[in-house]
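ARCHIVE CARD
CATEGORY: sequence design from structure
SOURCE FIELD: tokenized fold
FIELD CONTENT:
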């Protein structure tokens, strides 16, 4: 329905389909139930991913910024600052050409999400690739220019036979591409 507000969605369902959904639970109750069932939903997602993994040879890897607060409030923000290991950081998103304060959501999918990780915003996309060695093997990973790293590409290829395909930068020589083809 292209509604980007959960509150708007619940109100629209009640107004447009009032009789059919007369016993629809409140939005807050729905969210509490959804949170309490998270571990079960995650188990179902992992089982589905395992079943699809047998048939998949191609995976897409990408990241997106998760902004905690605006940059102007970054020093005053106390969100998730209890421990250094989990505290948000300042990062840069090249696709949106912006600095942000928060985290990065890293995902690997092939129709079903194989892996979803939350990293600090200042963690480079290429460093996330080292975790793929334990999760995937004998496949092709398709990523954007943020995952360009000839050393990571060679390591993935030699250790678990994962071929990483990324578009080359305009000023990049073809040396990295020919190393993997050898």
């Amino acid at each position: 329905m292209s509604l980007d507000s959960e509150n708007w969605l619940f109100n629209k369902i009640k107004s447009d389909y009032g009789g059919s959904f007369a016993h629809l639970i409140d939005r807050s109750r729905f969210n509490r139930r959804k949170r309490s069932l998270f571990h079960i939903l995650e188990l179902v997602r992992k089982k589905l991913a395992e079943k699809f993994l047998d048939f998949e040879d191609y995976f897409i890897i990408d990241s997106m910024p998760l902004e905690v607060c605006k940059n102007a409030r970054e020093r005053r923000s106390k969100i998730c600052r209890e421990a250094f290991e989990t505290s948000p950081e300042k990062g840069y998103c090249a696709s949106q050409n912006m600095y942000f304060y928060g985290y990065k959501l890293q995902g690997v999918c092939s129709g079903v999400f194989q892996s979803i990780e939350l990293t600090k915003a200042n963690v480079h996309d290429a460093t996330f690739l080292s975790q793929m060695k334990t999760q995937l093997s004998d496949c092709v990973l398709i990523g954007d220019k943020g995952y360009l790293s000839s050393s990571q590409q060679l390591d993935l290829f030699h250790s678990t036979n994962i071929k990483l395909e990324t578009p080359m930068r305009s000023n990049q020589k073809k040396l990295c591409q020919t190393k993997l083809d050898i």
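CARD ANNOTATION: The two ends are 49 Å apart (CA to CA). Residues 26-55 form one domain.
SHELF: design records, drawer C
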